[in-house]
Amino acid sequence: MSFEHAPVTKGLIIFLAVTSTVGGIFDIKHYLHLQLVPHLSTHHQYWRLLVHQLACASSSDLLVTELVLYNAAVNVERGFGSVKYASFLLIALGLNTIGTMLALLILKPIAIIGPLTNNVPAGPTAMIFSILFQYFRLVPEAYQFKVFGVSLSDKFWIYGTASQLTMGQPPATLLTTAVGLICGYVYRSDMMQLKGWRIPHSVIVFGNRWLMPMLGQETPPRRTNRVIPEAVIDRESAITTARHSSRLPNTATTQPAGPAPQEQLTTREDAPHPNPRGVVRQWVSELTDAANPSGGSDVRVPSDAEIQMLTSMFPGVGRDVLLGVLQRR
Length: 329
Known about the structure:
Layout: H1 7-25, E1 34-35, H2 36-40, H3 48-51, H4 59-80, H5 82-107, H6 113-116, E2 119-120, H7 125-138, E3 144-147, E4 150-153, H8 156-166, H9 172-189, H10 201-215, H11 235-253, H12 259-270, H13 276-291, H14 304-313, H15 319-327
């Protein structure tokens, strides 16, 4: 798994890591948490509603957040597309900001719960669970298993990791978790007609021109074309021997009728265990003879241009394999 087709998630992971690290180095994390009293009600520091979602409170929260984003948000972005996913993040950021403030105002008059939820720790917990709701609805299960008779899926590990954010500083983290899930549901149900909104085209152009080069281009890992390891069986002899055995019926049909095939068959029976290297040399000699046909040979002779083109396209494949492919065309 990589960040292929997920540049927004990659940028979000880097951004959270940088802001959390900078907040710890310069000792400014006391500006990141949120309190209804006195930050909002007394000092009117409304900017904390937005800032407290842009950095994590501790290194452990940062690690869990990055793990969830890497395993869940990448799949959501690939399903949405980068433009729609970036638009969803901005909408979720606004909904979570409004939802957190409304939740604090509603719970404040309650005698027991109000003081416990007054201090909201820093971290994008609401954003994470808004993404997880989309992951729950969008990404199907890959496999299922049972533990003590309870059916679980491969998503259990991601949900279990995210639950550590919920149980970090309860009940305040429970509040942000509920706000994130509700905002994710509101976006998914499209009850407020928000799914059709997209970020402006000028922002997309700016991101492609200036931000994408900074993030780098992600390419999928190259898959090897080797089936048999070289340490066990020599790859060249195995492939060329298979090519030669598959071409024996064609060479036998091109021989003229008469006693010559009987002599050739008798000669092959007399050799009980041919040397694989000798088989390779025999097959190469057949290709060499095919380059100067003298009669009714139907072996196709590949040109140097075709061989060079395939060699440049597949530098890791041997020349004998390329010749076999061109012979079968």
